[in-house]
């Protein structure tokens, strides 16, 4: 992919908060580059991937997020390729992308101009937790349902997100809309092609990954999604392991020790079977006393050792736990109607 030249000096750090920055950028769903201008820059997040800024587009005053990542010129950026190929109401949209130079010679950064969302499921969970409360059940249903819709869309295209967690579920609390973000770990999974097992944030890592599986499926996302649903209900992570090994211990304390058959299905190449025999805990004892039975039933269909026994995202969407969302009388706590939830397309039914 050719390097697009910027129209201003975009050396790192590229952004001055008050300055108007004009660059030559390519729209997410097009090939024709165009000038865009933005201002009011401020850093809103950073990590091993790079930095995320909030900015305002000069043309229409739209607030956007700009994710800046160091680009290895030897490879095409998988995140960019995937984001350009997808468009869904529950996935954050790629508006533009452009390249900028860094301080070092030949250092190139990819900048993704993304739809901005003001909050995350993670921050909302922490807010309620600090007040010794859990997210209202209707909100938990609303957020979980939209998460599964985004996964139904991705999985129908063979794309595995590989990092489902509350931090990557963006929210607009006023409208109730949720959008999945951060496709830095996402990949088109090909049958028979190995993949790295050290993927996904620890608390949400599927057991087959902990067992070192390299021929896993999109079902690793379903496990992660199950952990998110459980966290919405509990107000805290279900499996808070301190290390990779401890993560497996946390899972075993709830699900019990996996059988040889279950381990074989998670990773046929795993030969170490030296685990203490620990019985599982009834799910009713894991959650609060007033947790609805249909919520627990959904969890039992998501958090299963055998990957192929986990429900699909579409099956999760049709689960009775979400029946309240299907009632015409259901409203947000503000009295506003729910966001669009059932406008499924034929392509992938997502």
TrEMBL record:
Protein name, as recorded: Protein kinase domain-containing protein
UniProt cross-references to SUPFAM superfamilies, sorted A to Z: Protein kinase-like (PK-like)
Ligand binding (ATP): 68
GO BP: any one term: signal transduction
Superkingdom, natural source: Eukaryota
Residue ranges constituting the Protein kinase domain according to the UniProt record: 38-322
SMART domains hit by this protein: S_TKc
GO-annotated cellular components: axon; cytosol; nucleus
Keywords from the named record: ATP-binding, Kinase, Nucleotide-binding, Serine/threonine-protein kinase, Transferase
Coiled coil: none
Species this protein is from: Macrostomum lignano
Keyword Kinase: yes
Alphabetized GO MF terms: ATP binding; protein serine/threonine kinase activity
Family listed: Belongs to the protein kinase superfamily. CMGC Ser/Thr protein kinase family. GSK-3 subfamily.
